[in-house]
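Render this sequence as a predicted structure.
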Amino acid sequence: MFACCCSEDKQEVDIIYAGTLPEVSTSSETYIGSEKFEKAFKDVAATSPEPQLTKYNSKTVPDENPTFLVYLEEPESPEKLGLHLDLSDGETAYILHVSQNSDQPAAKWNATVQEEHQKLAPGVYIISINNKFGGSNLTDLVQSGKKMSMLCRRPSLRRVKVSRAGNTNLGLDLQFAKRGRVLTVTRILEGAVKESGAEILPGDRILEVDGVQGISEDLLKTLSESLNPTLVLSRCP
């Protein structure tokens, strides 16, 4: 069946979309869960500097490694962190927009680091904050107004075409946040996705359907009406 549900986190930060869709990658990396995130944090933290913005050395994380650490100063208030996030997968915080306000911690970090791939940007996943993992922990910490050490990962993007082949059910269980701009896949059920062998996994975020980007409700409508939808997916590698 084609199913969806709307997740509305009571402590969810405001969600605003900004930026253009990056070039789609053809890589086939798989989605991983919190236990591997924790190992990744330990591996990166072992060679990372103390959380002082002025002393950050971007070369401590190899260019080919999608994982990097970000240290944010304490914001004036939680809503002035400078990040607009989607937390609809219950596992990670997906960056939708980064404020350019130079007084806010996110913009300060981006102004400090020289390497573009170590900057906070739309599409980047926040896996942990202050060594805490899981969607509820991330939400609480984002709202705490404290200094933050964030483990982040750059996304893997791919374009996938789903053939219904007479099957009216897509077989996707979807979730999205209020004011969101993505659809998050929570389960693969019986239906066209499974039968066509389309490379879609739980945790993937749908950014675009048949060239359409916009609010989650528009993506969902386009997806439900398309006979053979082409999806652009974001995955946390």
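Summary. The radius of gyration is 18 Å. The first strand starts at residue 3 and ends at 7.
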